[in-house]
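Budget justification, computational time. The allocation requested in the original proposal was used primarily to generate structure tokens for proteins on the priority list. As evidence of use, we reproduce two of the resulting records. The first is shown immediately below.
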Amino acid sequence: MPGVNAQTEPLKDWTPDSWQSRPARQQPAYRDRAALDAAVDQLSRLPPIVVSWEVERLREELAAAQRGERFLLQGGDCAESFDDCESGRIAQRLKILLQMSLVLVHGLKKPVIRVGRMAGQYAKPRSADTETRDGVTLPSYRGDIVNRPEFTAAAREPDPSLLLRGYERAALTINFVRALIDGGFADLHHPEYWDLGFVGHSPFKSQYERIVASVADGLEFFETISAKEVHQSLRTDFYTSHEALVLHYEQAQTRHIPRQGRWYNLSTHMPWIGMRTAEIGGAHVEYCRGIANPIGVKVGAAMDADWLQRLVTTLNPDNTPGRLALIHRFGAKDLEAALPRAIEAVRATGHSVLWICDPMHGNTENSSGGYKTRRFENILRELELSFQVHEAMGSQLGGVHVELTGEDVTECTGGARGLTDADLQRAYKSTVDPRLNYEQALELSLLVAERAGKPRRARRPR
């Protein structure tokens, strides 16, 4: 029956490099082709960062989220830097995601799929190919995997050797995360491992501690009456994701797995296609249609029904559960008009997708002081409206996609501490997009858990 299992044979008109025959946006202009070919060749012979059975497990969990049995939390930095590959920063990012997921598990009463925007999120699309300062024009900084942020001709030259550096940093990051998790770091019996020192100053400290205590009491009660440990709760799976932007990097880590009979991108579990590169007939859609990984696609107001429908049927022709996630990012002011049209367009194809809300990108603006920022109230508003619209249309919001950090930054205004435009200069560290800090991220998870749990509470017998 179509749609029950993923395709069992590779596409006959697709290869890992067939994207090169299509228009390719947002690609670095490498001048040394020999150096690029050498880097891609070396990268293609290195061990994969993830393995196919992990990818398949994630697809099964995403299929469950489509059915309403799980909820996806996808979060991390807007763009990782190579300098971020240090144990303390990695642990902080993992800690805030684990804290958020614990809150969601408690509020939603269902398993949470944890997917980090990490271990590969080293490239970012740009609105212009060049940047001009004081009359000097140089190539735009496109992320550490492409070039360097310093405003010099040498730094801004796309460097193929950075593809290998990106692979090394991604592998180091995910291996450290795996070691932490396998060592019991993510054990629900020991959420104290996730403590971020500055959470003690958060106005949500008491609320979070009550949730931790409630989970601990629940585990203790079950284990007491069953006389055995809740083994499934001892550890959690953690998956990686990044935007599949620099296609030479993605191609080099694409492998055919004979026992699966399919091609996989083994640089990450869940690649996604951004709004700027989602055109039908473009290189990114061509590349992603041939791999067996779950694929995310960012969806915005610029996508009409025909475009969206063709993306759905091109990327998931067999309607395989868990294969395709649509990450909508309309902005709070446009969501009520745009999201119903998107839901209706997809419904008309007869295909099922996992709907995820990205409340960050559609709400970006400039502060009075010139900083790029996002207002927390707009982020919450878009999430709240997303739940309402999906519920009203008989659809289901199955996940949230946020840019966040475990650091005490000031990049988004608002939240419980009421950060203002004037506060942004105190600890604005992002080189690309503004992120929620640890406190705002925890507040967001508490509010999502409360809102998403309302329909379940309303169904309880009185």
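The second record produced under the same allocation is shown here.
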Amino acid sequence: MQKCAMLQLRQRRWIWLLAWGLLSALGSLVLARLALAELRDAFETDARIMHRLLSQRVVQHDAVMATLALLQPRQSAQPQPPEQRLGAVYPQILALQRRDAGAPWPQDSLRAAEARSRQSRHAALANLDLAAGRYQLVLGADPSSYALLIDLRATVPWSEWPMRPDSSPVRVTLEHQGQRFLLQPGQVRDGGWRFDFHKHLAADSQPFDMVAVRQVGWQALPWGWFLAWAGAMAALLLALQALQRQRAGRRRAEELLRLGQISRLNSLGELAAGMAHELNQPLTAVLANTQAASRLLREDPPDLATARTAMTQAVEQARRAASVVGRLRRLVERPELSGQVQPVLLQEALDNALYLLEPELSRRHVQPVRKTPATPLAVLADPVALEQIIHNLLMNALQALEQTGAGPRELTLSLSEDQGQGLLSVYDNGPGIPPERMARIFEPFFTTRQAGLGLGLSLCETLAVGMGGALSASSPASGGAEFRLTLPLAAPDDPKQP
């Protein structure tokens, strides 16, 4: 049983640990998804800002080229045209070349770019070198065409850039026709989660692709929140476990209360049945004596002396019944008074019980053998309860002797002192008590007789223990059964001692 309970306890612990692990894992998964979604949103927001800033700059290049084409008739005669000072206004423009009508370009690539520009009617790329971060932008116009040499790194508006390029984990590049220019290196590693952003800049003349990449590793996850969630789940499960234990304790207490109520009802039934059992003897004697007195008084002449004796016995039995009822009343109304004891002579209690059972002894042809000490034994007991115990023990012995058949019937009553206790031994040579029934002999409602209630010995033991004594049973080797009642001896100088 203990091993089974330990196994169940261990299983319950594993179930709680498994529940904690599952809740912690699910909560951490949700937190991780939320954290990754937040990182992705922040990444895409920054990427869109970078794309907008770069698109504004390349669109600005187209605007500069268009402005040059519009203003060139008035500026062509000046010794140093103002467009040569564009670098002071736009630091990303490193140089400006102008080809007047009929003049050749110094490079064929510029001539080809001018042809594409005239065909598309907007500026065209030439001499693209993304590895060096430079390219030329050519616009074909009349009477003069222009070519700008642009530095890509100077094009980036770093003062408005949404992140620090030297420490940001995001890698940003500009790509076109297999070439790539690295704006910021970022920190791209293997493993984890990868965020990508890919979009063309808003200028047909400079069709660069801005590519942003961020690699989110395990270290970027909110481990602090994971631990906090796991701790919260542990606290919640501990609270649920404590609540479950509290409910189980409350159910256990309610069950114990219910069992206690049932036990009290059973005890009440046992007490009522026991009292009925105890009152049956004196009331039967009262009925028999009064009937005998009535019969004697009807005789002619009436036998008054015998009738008086019968009535005296009836009165004694009525008083005994009243004492039983009074003790029951005290037990119910004032339980603290039910256990009051006083010095009682054990011999007198035995004599009273034998006197009441004289008719039963005569009917069964039993002559009890008494063994009493020379000095009377005074014990501390409730007189009525003591008489009740002795009466029950003698009646049980007489009922056992009825089963001996035609053989001799022995009933031995011994009084002695044993280790500071007054001892009454009741022995009969009846069939005895089988070993398998000995352990249950004082159990309520356990009986070996068909008409028995199984309450007499249980009630006797309860009364004996209530007076500070004990009641035991044994089967001697010679056969039969012996019941031993022990009660505390009264002090010799007790003023209440008879």
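A brief technical remark on that second record: Confidence is low (pLDDT under 50) at residues 334-338.
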